[in-house]
Amino acid sequence: MHIKQITITGFKSYRSATVAGPFSPAHNVVVGRNGSGKSNFFDAVRFVLSDTFSNLRAEERVALLHEGAGASVLSAYVEMTFDNSDGRLPIDKDEVLLRRMIGLKKDEYTLDWKNVSRTEVFNLLESAGFSRSNPYYIVQQGKVAALCAMTDHQRLELLQEVAGTRVYDERRKESLKLMEDADAKREKIVEVIDSIESRLSELESEKEELKAFQRLDKERKALQYTIHVRELEEAKAALEALEDDRGQQRSRADKLNAHLTDVCANITTAERELKSLGPELKRAEEDREAIDKRRKLAVEKIAKLQVGVAEAEKAASTTAETVANTKSEMEELHNLMIQKRAELEPLEAELTNVKGEEETIRKQIDELRSSLLRLRVKANRSNQFSTVEERNSHLRRSIREARNRKRSLEQKINTRMADMDRLQQGIVKNEEKCVARRKEREELQAESNASNSELQQLSGERDRVFRKRQDLWRQESEISAKIRELQDGISKLEANKRSVIGSSMYYALNFIAKLSRDNPRDFGPDKVYGPLLELIDVDTRYSTAADVTAGGALTHVIVNNDETAAKLVRALREKRAGRVTFIPLNRMSTDSRPPPPASADSVPLLNKIRSDPLFSSVVKHVFGRVLVAKTIQIASDLARQHNVDCITLDGDQVNRRGGMRGGYVDTSRNRIDAARFLREAGSDLRGMQEKKGEINATLEQVNDNLNRLMGEVQRRNVVKRNASIKIERLDKEIHDLERFMEVDRRSIENAQNQISDAEEAIVNVNKSIEDMEKELQSPMISGLSSQEENQLSESKDEIETLRTSRSEKMSERASVERRVLALRAELKGSLEKREAELKKSIAAVAGDALETSETEDLQQRMEENLKRQQDALQEAEEDLGNIRKELKEAEANLVQKKRAFNQKTAFIEQNRNEEARVNKAIEDDRQQIEKKYSQRAIETQKKTDAEKNIRELGSLPADFDKYRDMSIGSLMKRLKKANEGLRKYSHVNKKALDQYLNFSEKREALSQQREELDSGAAAIRQLIDSLDQRKDEDILRTFKGVSKFFSEVFKELVPGGRASLVMLKSSDDTRVQQGTPASRIQYTGVAMKVAFSSTGQAYLLQQLSGGQKSIVALALIFAIQRLDPAPFYLFDEIDANLDATHRQAVANLIRKQANSGTQFITTTFRPEFVNAGDMWYGVTHKKKVSGIQEVGRDVALTFITDEPTTR
């Protein structure tokens, strides 16, 4: 066995994984410079193989970790690989790996990658020859020097350690401790025995009195025993009677409880039905109110239609008369208007003539005034100018001004003539527009009249569709209310299901259902079928029996195979959703056994369960071998007869071995019923939702139709409204055009008047010019001529006459004008307005019949309108009839619901009264039972007291039953007499005899224990003597062996030299030489004598030089190793203090032992060891990190050559 390889990681200066090896089984030399890590290499080996680094504290473990640049090292390990081909280690392997790992908080060993304890490691090493008593198979630096410095006593301790006397010392110490404990116990036992002896002597004097006391005491015990037995028998008899009464009361209580359960079930059922009737009653009332509201609306509609029919009938009967009267009135009005126009025409002609005459007179007056003015101006000029030239100059200027004014008047006339032409053209255009607008109005009016009939038909159809939509809305509202009720009920049923199967199971099943919905590929309905209770259908009568029979299997989930089950189990674990049992169908075997036979009193439970054939194996497995019997007695007989399990309808079970199980079963917590109710409610909900979907689809179609009709009606109304707006706009345009034409006519008239005035002014201007030109030709005279004077005078008179005539004409014109205005006002303001009103009225009644002369169709249209009104009235009356029929049915339904509600309320009240009565009976029974329980407790206490008293009597005399035939009175008298006799011995120690016996037994036991301690102490002393003797023998034997090998090794190291070991005894001058016989000697030390020549003087170690001491110490080390050889040795610079000769001698010795099969690993700075090596390894150090690698001898010698010679 030898070290094959060493791996160091993170230990001291070795940071990364450093592998040293493979090592030679002979001599391996490790070289390196100072501080490179050679000693750390040896520390790593000691870290694994020795106990130097045992029991490390945290800071000590940290000190062993590598400290350098970079990330800190948190753990380290040293791994040694041993070649075990010789089988020295008790492991059946050729190669063994031993590793020790340390960290901040760990320190552990592994052997072949398995954790082992430190004790196991060192026991294994000792079995291979690595004794902990031999400290020199690893020799580190300074150990040779320490050995040189040892005293004689320290060398003795070293030999003792080599001899293994530590074991003897430890065992001797343990033996002494045991002997001390035995001595202490023996002293205590002696003290106790002495006290017992004194107490026994006292108890001897109390024995006679105690005998008399015991005789009376036996009699008292016998009497007390007989009395207590009588009391016990009486208590038992009373308890038996109470038990019989309690059985009868229990039977009656069971019947009352069963009846109460039935009553409570009736109340619960009735309340559930009443709760469901409440919304139905409310819905019936709401339906009745809604139908009654529809009835009122229908009545109102019929009333309106009746009014419309009456008006239509009246209109149809009076339309022709109205049109005829209107026509007659219009003819009279037309004749009157003709008459008024006939009256107006001569008046207008007369007014025109009068105005002409008035205008002629005005013109004459103006001409005379102008002539008069000219004469006056001429007269004034004769006085104004002094010369003809001044006058002529003024006249020429006036002529020019007159001519300018004439041109201005002519221009004005031309302008007015152009305006008149423009206005006349505008009047013609406006008249053409009026004709076009009137034609367009007539067309629009005809189109509006034609669309009225279609609009009425569309409105009627729209109303019918609207009523149909209201009916669908009502149906949809009713179904929505039922759906909400079903959803509320399903929520309550879900809560009930959660209650009966447990919350954890409920949530687990819900998780599986959700997983099946969300992941149909892995957990679809073809793989996960659901829990058993949702996959079976049981007759209501047998649901309790099925629920009790199945038990927990009802919540087991059926899946297609075990792979799906495993996936579901993993999903449940990952989500922590609970625990569920799965039933894979591929694991279910087919049960070919027939079901139990049916009879008049029994039926196989399997026959009452319905399920999909796919699950038949599961259903047969759970329910297949169970019979349902009428009574528990029949079930018991059938179970024995057919060897099957039986169950009653109430859930009482009898198994095939005859065991019974049962009791009260709360049917409200039946899981099968809960699942069935939930399944039925879900089915009802889906049916209602499908019906609602159909209604919504129909409602959508109706809405589309209604929207279409409303859009068409709206479009027609828009067309009609647009036509009315256009007609109104056309009427306004026509009126505006007529007003514009009237304004233009008045403007033309004003322009004509202005032209007339301008022409008259031109005439006057011409005369004025003519007069001034004449005056230019005449001489300038003062004043007027006689002719001009006469003309002036005549002009004045004529003006006065014309003014008078003009005034008369003006009065005549005003009179004629008032009459004309009155006739015009009557025509425009009254007659024409009335004519327009009549036209509008007849147009509203008969359209354009008046204008188109088609009055023969008017009556037909009125009759059609009447028929439409009558049809609408008939339809409304039919709707009212249907509504009244629905109302009657709703009222009947409401009455029925109220009757059922009242019946359920009365039934609940009746059952509540019965519940109160049964509760009172149960309470009375409970009170009776409590009284019986109190009596039973009293009797039980009496029985317990009697039994306790009997037990407390202890051991009884042999004749304890001799008083059995005596009466209780006699017994009490005898007991009283015995107690009086015992009072005389009240001072007697009643336990003296027992105490005497107990103390005697204790004395014997303690004496035996003392003898055992004495024998044990003697054995311990003998063991100590034996240990001392064996220790001395081992020390002496080790001394002899080491002394022998010491002499031999020294001779090999120092040829011709002599060496011996001397054992020092307690006497200072006595020496034990080699060969002294073993004896019980007190050794004090070991001395060494050496001579370095065969003839030289022998010296003690203290008398030698340093080098000599080192060679002597090495001789002792090799001697110890030869005495207790190990498979390998590690030397760390043991040649440090030797000269060349001695180094060569030590190297030759190592070489010799290595060749004999012992492995050496040494470090050195000298070439002798290097030359004696078989393999060499160089230790390097760079950046605070050590490394080790195999090198050749020459390279190893360079390490030594480069190393300084001084240390």
UniProtKB/TrEMBL annotation:
Where is composition skewed (Polar residues) in this entry?
446-459
Q: Which UniProt keywords apply?
A: Cell cycle, Cell division, Coiled coil, Mitosis, Nucleus
Q: Where is this region: Disordered?
A: 442-462, 780-811
Q: Give the GO cellular component terms, alphabetically.
A: chromosome; nucleus
Q: Which residue stretches, if any, does this entry annotate as coiled coil?
A: 186-350, 855-932
Q: Which family does it belong to?
A: Belongs to the SMC family. SMC3 subfamily.
Protein name according to UniProt:
Structural maintenance of chromosomes protein
Organism the protein comes from: Gracilariopsis chorda
